[in-house]
Structures are given as structure tokens and as C-alpha cells.
Amino acid sequence: RPFPGDGGRGRLCRPPPRAPRAPATPRLWLGCGSGACPDCDAATAWGQFAQSGGWLGRPRGSTIPRDIDKQYVGFATLPNQVHRKSVKKGFDFTLMVAGESGLGKSTLVHSLFLTDLYKDRKLLSAEERISQTVEILKHTVDIEEKGVKLKLTIVDTPGFGDAVNNTECWKPITDYVDQQFEQYFRDESGLNRKNIQDNRVHCCLYFISPFGHGLRPVDVGFMKALHEKVNIVPLIAKADCLVPSEIRKLKERIREEIDKFGIHVYQFPECDSDEDEDFKQQDRELKESAPFAVIGSNTVVEAKGQRVRGRLYPWGIVEVENQAHCDFVKLRNMLIRTHMHDLKDVTCDVHYENYRAHCIQQMTSKLTQDSRMESPIPILPLPTPDAETEKLIRMKDEELRRMQEMLQRMKQQMQDQ
Length: 417
What we know:
The chain has 12 helices and 9 strands.
């Protein structure tokens, strides 16, 4: 191009060199930002990989960064896989409620799960309850909360403890528990093991009357008959009938009698050392509160400008979910929020395994006895010969006699010669 002062002569020149472009900042995978999950670890590895030169620093043919390969394998997602599978499959839980009539069993179940399972229930009179025998009634309902499905089965025992003579009135209940164990054992030993329906009783809420001075003989007999078959959680029913001092004394008396008669109720598992302090404090409060003093209510009342579930009395309002009034919240937390899975594990690993080992031992001993028994060999009677057989036998005998006579004559001739 022409330049000033060159006399109109133009000349070609090389364009000025461009300034080098600054390297682009690599986009980093930030993870969730907490720094405590596998995604954050992988994000850190990707960031270090990009800052160290990216793929330019890798040999040709490499596909996976070395840092990521070392720090993040992928098995940390196993809990998420189990969680997705469990939520998709759903959960089941079988709860048994036992105790004499009038202690609020149905009301407490309704308050625990906010579900009315006794819509078509028929209330019996006092005379009908005396003549009534112990029955086993099952109520099943499907509950869903935040995408989690629960198949809840409530096993009710109407007629328990209502008769004049309550000797072994718990026998139908123990038979029912054994029947569920037997059915599960058969299904487990069968061919279709994938679709086994678990109807075993995972927990039994036993209601103790607040009007006595401890455990009655029927209470002791029931718990001793079932404490090796099911997880028993004793409850003090209708705790609003007692003042706080009376509740404390009754709890101490029940604990002493449980230890005295050797009854094994459900024991809360020990906390791990790595648990937080809030969970440890909650576990200590649960252990100190047993047996739980509970109150149930199906009505909502207004107290201090708020609508709460409770009971209205002339002297005040008893709130079901107020921990200063009863142990309903502690029971709900234990039964549903913290120890439901442990109740199922104890049922499967302890109570059912004891039943299964007993069944296998009986089957083995029976097979051993059968193999040791010596069965005598039966002596078959000789068949009676018919006419043709007898004729054939006579002909053979006659032929044999002639041959013997012929041999005798030949022997005599040889001696004469």
C-alpha cells in the first residue's frame, strides 16, 4: 500500500503480528458445593486435571484422567441404588394391638397413623363382651407419604381379657403368630421365593390398665407366652387418668415386675459411637420413658389459638402431641421414625430364626428316627399249583425215577461182567 513520502510508490508489507490470546479459563464441575459428597470429590479431581493442562498433558489414547480414576470409583452410589429400589418396592409393617376392651387401642392406632381402620366396627355391650371369645381381626391399608408407600397391617384381638375366667386366653394369639411363622417358612422353602408376602407380626403394643397397681396375672401370662415370639412394647393406656407422680410410680412398679417375672420386652439397640449428640439424647429419653404412658384422640380442639389433637375436659385440655402431657410423641418416633426397621430386623433375625431352627431340628430328628427303623422282610406265601402244573411235576418225577432205574441196571451189569 502507498505510504506518505514514498513518491507514489507502493510496497507490500507484512501485517503486524497479533497479540497472543489468553488461554480460556476451563469450566469446572463444581459438584454440590458441600465438599463432602462423591460428586464434590470428582469435581475437585476434574478441576485439578483441567488446571494441569487438561488432555494435552495426557498420552495419546488415554480416556480417563488418572486423578479421577484414583479418587472416585463409583461404589459410593450404592446407598442411592438401594434407596431407589426400596422406594419402588415399598415397605410393609404388621402391628398387633392387645389388651382388654375400653383401653383406647383403636383410638391410639388412628392417632398414630392418621387413618381410620375401624369404620364398620360394631361396639358390643357388656354382656356380649363377657360371652365373647378371643378373635383375630386383620385390617390392611396402604399409606403413602412423600412418595414412600407403606402397607400397614393392624392385627386386633377383640375379646382378650374380657371373660370372667381368662385362663390361657392368649392361646389364640400365640397360635396366630406361629401360623404366620409357619406360612413364611413354607413360602421360603418353596419355588416362588421372589414374591413372598411377609405377614409376620413385627411388633405388639400391649395395653396395661392404669387403674391397677402394676401388672395383673393375665398381663404376666400374656407377655411370658409371647416374649420369645414377637417384640412386645408395653403401654400404660389412658394416661390422662393419672397425675404425673402416679405415672412415675406406676412405671417403676411395672419395670420391677417385668424384671421379677423374667419378661423380655423389646430392647432398644445401643447407639453407635459416631452418632450425633441429639440422637443419643433422644435414645436415652426413649429408654427412660418405657413403658410409655399414652393418650389417644380422634378429635381436634382449639388450645391457645391453635388447633391440636386432644381431649377437652372441664378443667382444661389434654394435648396428645404435648410431651409434657403424655409419651405419645416418643412412641410415634420410636415406632415409625427411628426403630421401625429395627423391629423388622429383630423379628427376622431373632424370633423367626428361633422358630426356623426349631422346625429344622424337628425335621432332622424325625428323618433320623425313620432311617434307624428296620422294617422286616415280608414272607410271601407259596403259590398254589394248578392241575397242569401238578401233571407236569408228576411227569418229571416219573422220568427221573426211570432214569434212576436205568442207571441201577447198568451198574448191576457192570458188576456181573
